Amino acid sequence: MGHFPSANQGAAVRTVEPSIAADGPMAAAVLAALEVPALVLSNDFGDDPGGVQIQAWLERHRVASTARPVPDQSTSHIVIVADDDGTRTWFPYLPGVLDGLMAVDLTPLASASFAYVDCYQLIEPASLRAIEAARRAGVPLLLNLGGSSLSPEVASALRDWPELLVIQTNVDDAAHGEALATAASLRSQTRASWVVVTAGAFGAVALSDTSRVSVPAFEIVVRHTHCAGAAFSGGLLYGLRLGWPMGETLELAAASGSLRCERPHHEPLPDLDQLRAFISSRARLAAPAAG
C-alpha cells in the first residue's frame, strides 16, 4: 500500500505475497541454498491450506524440519503490512504455538555444529528452553532478538557461554545512529563474543570485546523487506560456521539480506557464486550503521 491508514480509515492493498513466518526457517533455507545442511526444530502445523503451503515451501527450499502436519489443526499465521514509507506492521495469530514450541524435541542439538534460536518476546519461554539445551550441548549459538528487548532472564541464560556466542538484532533506519550503542549495551549485559546490529539501508555493525566492524548496505531496488533479517542471519551463520573474518561474514550476510529484499518471494534463494557476483557488482550506500 502507499501509506498506512490512520485509525478508522483504510488503504488499498496493491499486492499480496505468501511467505514463511518466523526467521528460523528462512535462515535454514538460505543455508540450504549455500549447500549447508540445517534442521529446523519447530512446532507442528495444520493440514489446512496454510499447512499445505508451509510443507510445499519447506520442500521447495530443501529445508529439513521436525514440524509435521496435524489433522484438524489450524495453521497459525502472521499478516505483515508494509507501505511505501517503510512502515512494516505485523499481526500474529498464534493459538497454541507456544505450547507446541515447548513440546519440541531438542535432542538434535546435541549433534549440531551451530545453534540458531529466535528469541522474540512472544515465545520467550520456549526460546529459553532452547538456549538451555544449546548450552548443555556445548555448541556455538546465534541468538536472534529480531528487535525484541533483552530480558533479564535471557541475559542470565546467555552469560558465560562456553562457546562462540553471537547476538543479532536490528534498529529502524531512522535510529541507525543508535546501532553501535545498542550493540555495546547487549554486549555489556551478556558478554557475548559478538553483537551484530542491522540498520536497513544504513548497513550493519558488529561489536566484540576488542573490535568494531561495520559494512554499508548495498544499493538495491527494494521490492519488500519481509525476512530480510532472516536472510542476513543465514549469510551470517555461513561465515561464522566457517570461521571467516567478521568483515567478510558481514558482507556476505548483507548481500543475502539485500537480495531477499530485491527478489520476489517465489524465486530461488541465491547460491554462493550468485552472492559473490552480487557483492562484486553492486554499489554500496554511503553510511554504515556505525557512522
UniProtKB/TrEMBL annotation:
GO molecular function, one term: kinase activity
Pfam families: PfkB
Domain Carbohydrate kinase PfkB span(s) in chain numbering: 40-264
Protein name: PfkB
Upper taxonomic lineage: Bacteria, Bacillati, Actinomycetota, Actinomycetes, Frankiales
SUPFAM superfamilies xref list: Ribokinase-like
Record InterPro entries: PfkB_dom (IPR011611), Ribokinase-like (IPR029056)
Signal peptide: none
Keywords: Kinase, Transferase
